[in-house]
Amino acid sequence: MKTFAYKFFVGMIVILLMNLVQAVVVFAGPASAAYYGITYVEGVHTVTNINSQYWVAKLWSKTKVPVTTMDDIGYSWWTVRERCNGNITKSVQPPPHVLHGTSLYYASSQVAKQSCISGDRQGSSMANHDFYKWPKSHMYLYADEAQFLP
Amino acid sequence: MKKKFLPFVLGFVLLLTLGGIVLLSGLNWPVSVSASEPLTETVMLPTVIVPTTAPEKVEEADKLLQEIQSQVEGTNKKYLKNGWLHVVYQTKNSVASDGTIGDGISIPTEYIMEDWYLLEDDGATKTSAVSFMRDTAGNIVQYSVLYKGKWYNKTLNDITDASPFGPKIDFGFANRAAEMPQSINKQELKTENLVLYTLPIQLAAPIQLEGYDQPTQGTVEKAYFHADGSGLFKLETYMILPDGNQVLDSVTTILVLDNLETPPDEIVKILEEVQQ
C-alpha cells in the first residue's frame, strides 16, 4: 500500500503540470504577451460597418494585468485595407503614433467603401503595437482582424 | 474506499491553489484587473439624418423606389442566372491609396475590374470566380481566384474568406434607396437616354475619413440607369463637405455585362491551376 506522502507527491506533480498547461493556454495567441514581467500587454482590433457608405477600423494597445502606465504606448505601423473579391481596393496607413505616460491607447480609422459589384467586400486592420517602459526595451506585438462588410 | 482517495483530493486542491499563486506571483501578476482603469473606449458611430416626409410625398417616394427596384430586377433576371456572369467596370477615385500592397505594387486611383462568376441556384450563389484588377493601360495589378469558399490572391499569394452570395449588379444601390426612399430624386436625361436617381445621405455629425483633407457631412449617390430598362450604367459618389458643398469622390462605370454558357480558355486555365 502506497503511503500518504507518496500520493501527496503524485498529486502535487499533476497539479503543477496542470497549472503550467493553463498558463500556456491563457497566454498563447498573437495579440497578447508578457512585458518583461512588469505587465501583460494586448493588441486589439475591431472592424465595424457604419452604414452603406463607410466602415471603421479601431485599434487598442492595452496594459492589462496589472494596468500599468507606460512611457510609450501605441503602434509602430498600422495598415487598414479593404478587399473586393480578394483583391485589395483600398489601403491606408495612418502614421506611427504613441502616447506617453498612459496605460491605454485607442485610435480609429474611418474608411469610405469602394465599389464592389460582388458585394464580397472585406475590411481588415493589422498593426504592430508598440509598448515601452524605461529601462526595458520596446516590445512590438502584431495583431489583426478582418470582417465582411455589406 | 473513500479514504483511499482522500490524500489525492487534498493534495490536488492544495496544489491547485499553491501552483496558481506561485505562477502568478512569480510573474508579478495580480489575479484581478483594476476596475478603475478603462480597458475599452466607447465610440459613437455616426448617425444618419432621416428626413421627415409630408404624407403626400410618401406615395411619390414609393413610386420612385419601385421604379429603381423594377430596373434592377429586370437586369437581375437577364444576367443573374445559372451560367458565367461576365462583368467589367471602371472605377475612378479622387483619393489615392497609401503606399504599396506588396512587391512594389500600388493601387491605382483609376482601375478596371473584370470579373467572371460561375453562378448557380438561379444566380443566387457563386461557386467559382476569377477577378482581375487592371490599370487603365490594361496591365494586371492583381488577380484572385475563388475556389471552395476562399479567394486566392495569385498576385499577393494570400488567401481570404469569401461570402457565398451572388453579385449585385447595381452595386447595392436599390437596397440603399430602400433604406431612405423619401430622399430619392429623379431626373430624366433625354439627350443621354438615361434616368438619374439621386440619393443623399446626410450624417448627423461630420466624420473624418482616412486619407481625406476635410471631414465629410455625408454623401450623395447619383445612379444613372439606361432609359430603355437595361440596367445601371454609372454610379457617382459625392462627398458633402461641412460647408454644404459637394465634391466628386468616385465614379464607377459598367463597361461589359453578360452571361455566357462557358468562359474563355484563359479563365478555365486559371481555375484549373488553382484546383491542382
- Tell the overall outline of chain B: globular
End-to-end distance of chain B? 62 Å
* Rg measurement of chain A, Å: 21 Å
Low-pLDDT segments of chain B: 19-43
Low-confidence stretches of chain A: 15-30
Share of helix of chain A, binned: 10-25%
* Number of helices, where a helix is a run of at least 4 consecutive DSSP H or I residues of chain A: 1
SS class of chain B: alpha+beta
Looking at how many chains there are and whether they match, the oligomeric state comes to heterodimer
Provide the succession of SSEs of chain A. Answer: HEEEEEEEEE
Number of strands of chain A: 9
Structural class of chain A: alpha+beta
Q: Could you tell me the strand content of chain B as a percent range?
A: 35-45%
Largest sheet of chain B: 12 strands, antiparallel
How many H/I helices of chain B? 4
Q: Mean pLDDT across all residues of chain B, rounded?
A: 85
Q: Determine the N-to-C terminus distance of chain A.
A: 68 Å
Number of strands of chain B: 12
How would you describe the shape of chain A? extended
Describe this structure in words.
The complex is a heterodimer of chains A (150) and B (276). Chain A is α+β, with helices and mostly antiparallel strands and 150 residues long. Chain A has one helix at 4-27, and strands at residues 32-35, 39-49, 54-63, 72-84, 87-92, 97-99, 104-112, 121-132, 139-149. Chain A is built from 1 helix and 9 strands; from the N terminus they run αβββββββββ. Chain B is α+β, with helices and mostly antiparallel strands. In chain B, strands 1, 2, 3, 4, 5, 6, 7, 8, 9, 10, 11 and 12 form a 12-stranded antiparallel sheet that branches. At the A-B interface, α1, β2, β3, β4 and β5 of A face α1, β2, β3, β4 and β5 of B.
